[in-house]
């Protein structure tokens, strides 16, 4: 408790000291403010005096300078307004050597340069307008020729398509004919094989007929021997008398049979001989037919080879015509692109013509005088022949 009282007493003492210090600082601040206010009043009075003196001096200087600067500046403003109105014909009079005179001299030179520039622009605009008309005429001629080329290419493409269809059909026909020739060759070859078999069979029949003729000869010999034996038996029966009568009858029958066998053998031999002759004649005919068939087979093979070559040539021709069609199609696309380019060039030329007309309209606002119009700059003089050289002849050649 005693400690708290002691601390409170110390705090009260410090508070009094602090209040005294604050009052001292407030007094010092008031003194500083009063001193600064007095200094400000003195500075303000001096500033007002200097300002009044400056106003008097500036008024005198302004009055003096207005006579030396404002009048030339008015002349410059007047000249600038003339240029703004498009009057470039009048000249600007310059006198003196000061900065204003230099400004007027620069404006005079600018006016002269602008006069030459407007003259050049007018000459160039006229040349561009004339050239645009020539280019437009050239574009019209080129467009007409392009349309004619496009029409011709379309007709050529149509004819080439018809020719392609015809050649393709011929190629198919040649291939079909070649296949038929191959089939005919196979059939003729099989016919030749059959004829060869017939010839072989006829030769076999001829050989068999010869063997039959030999056998019939043997039979004829047997019949002849039998007839001799029958005659001998009849003779012996006659000698035997009554006892050999029956044997004589048998011998007579045997002789009759032998005679009939001999007769039949002769007839068969004659028939076999005729058959052998006919077989030989048939064999010769079949042999001839076989050789003819072989010739037909060879001819059909040759025809098949020729048709195959024709088909191959037709196929190559069809391929070549296809390439020609492709080239014609490419040419047609190029012509169409040229037509589009011509249309774009015509549009650009028309735009250039309109811009030249607009430029001439703008240039017409300026009055450059007769002398400037009569004597354009060397650049415009050199520009006219260059533009005029791009005439109709150049476009037709293009």
Automatic annotation (TrEMBL):
GO terms for molecular function: transmembrane signaling receptor activity. It is found in: Membrane. InterPro entries: HAMP_dom (IPR003660), MCP_chemotaxis (IPR051310), MCPsignal_dom (IPR004089). It comes from Ramlibacter agri. GO terms for cellular component: plasma membrane. Residues 124-353 form the Methyl-accepting transducer domain. GO terms for biological process: chemotaxis; signal transduction. Residues 67-119 form the HAMP domain. The chain crosses the membrane at residues 43-65. Belongs to the methyl-accepting chemotaxis (MCP) protein family. It comes from the Bacteria. The lineage of its organism: Bacteria, Pseudomonadati, Pseudomonadota, Betaproteobacteria, Burkholderiales. SUPFAM superfamilies: Methyl-accepting chemotaxis protein (MCP) signaling domain. This is HAMP domain-containing protein. Keywords: Membrane, Methylation, Transducer, Transmembrane, Transmembrane helix.
